[in-house]
Queue: 2 jobs
Job 1
Amino acid sequence: MQRLLAWLDHRLGIVTLARASLLDKHPPRGIGFLRTLGFAALVVLALQFLSGIALAFHYVPSAELAYDSIRAFEQDVPYGTLVRSLHHFGASAFVVCAALHMLRVYFTGAYKRPREFTWLTGIVLLTLVLGFGFTGYLLPWDQKAYFATKVGTEIAGKAPVVGEFVRTALNGGDEVGPPTLTRFYVIHVVLLPLGLLGVLLVHLALIQRHGVAPPGLPVDQAGAKGPPYFPHHVFKEVLVGMLVAGALFWLASRYRAPLEAVAEPSDTKYQPRPDWYFLGLFQLLKYFHGPWETVGTLWLPTLALAGAVLLPFVDRNPERRLARRPLAAALGLGFVAAVGVLTWLGWRDAPHNEAVLEYPLGLTPQERHGYMLVRRSNCTDCHQHVTKDGRKIGERQHDAPNLEKLDRSVDEVAAILEDPQEAIGSEDMPDYAHLSLEDRRAIGIYLKTLR
Ligand code: HEC
């Protein structure tokens, strides 16, 4: 064994590396559980890669099939619902771990000399993660995906000079549509993971190089050595990592990742809402109108980002103890409070959209066409639909019979839709004579599937 290890080490250097980074490494005395958050983020990231790969094996990145492939993944693949929920809540967990880790670094002054570039790569990682969140949100191609992306790319389009270019490049055209889905998919599964892995390697290498900043000591003071990194601190990191992973599995097995009805671009009633970590930003936009709009969409976020990038170079105070950094403490707390309040306000104001008809898997193209027409024609404004599991969709008006109770042949439906007055003597049912016979028949064919 000894000889095998020596043989391997001579060629690969792994034993030397393990010694240097684990066994012979003595981080400064007094580092506790607050210094495990970065590792927790790493654990969540690993889970995101695994669940993401499982999803990618089944996901079809086309506007026609994306939604169905997600539904089929949940329904037919063993543990599909769990895996999708893991990936969904994992995104949030990652943002939480990364943000807490960043706050810890900020408030303990760990970004100071000589760790400026560890901080910078951390900021790049956080923006990449937000990019993952934004692009991933579109992939299920449901209502919330479509309309949030529409808002997001419109915001990008308002940036000066490059805005229009960025918007059309992301959209793959003028509007959010099928090409947008392809592009977001490539960004989500190729570009961002490549960028993330590259920057993450640099981030980790820099942490290896500089070690943990000694708590409470001014820069350039090494402080007393603590016990070896392995097993003392590794134990804490693994414990926290397991707790976070356990919490995530619990959450994902208890709550299902949301999936609304398939996207219908012509829907004018839908009120878009982003994922919770963009709610603060979304709220900010509501306070600036007209020529001031770009203050909320561009200048304030850019200011925050620029402030974070410049921080380790502008902040020359050598102290790490918070009590000796009153300005940094005030700025940090002010920023956290502002983001917290904006997110809370955004959460409170977030619109709730009425449930719309969900089509079952395995519809023929014609049935699917009929389904889309029924949604576009707002039939559920008068004809309520009660699903098999008892959810009520739409309202009942003028005593219109429930959709699943309509018992008419395809031709009868086509005739009723053309002229309800003549066909059933109804004054209350509007006519849909503007639809072609083929469209009206497609509605009749779809209605049969509800019975
Ligand atoms: C403004 C309200 C309203 C809307 C919108 C509406 N309907 Fe109706 N519909 C009615 C009412 C009321 C009746 C019952 C008429 C009666 O029995 O006198 C009816 C009757 C029907 C019937 C015949 C039921 C039967 O067997 O007697 C069908 C089929 C039907 N609607 C389909 C549709 C479809 C499909 C849409 C959407 C494209 C739609 N309706 C939109 C109000 C509405």
Job 2
Amino acid sequence: MVKYARCNAMLSLALDENGQPCRYMAQADTEDAIMSAMSDHLKGVHDVDPADLINNIKGITKTTRK
Ligand SMILES: [Zn+2]
């Protein structure tokens, strides 16, 4: 099982560095790893403080069987 979270679902109108809608997807085995990957992404690409979005990230983290 793999957990994943999509950036764009959390930050409406999130744009990547080229001005395109952000399609970043964090993928990991654990929710903690998702949180840290997504936090790095939000800080690095969107200049957003992930501390404000922890609940959002948890809310959009899904689990899939691949
Ligand atoms: Zn993003």
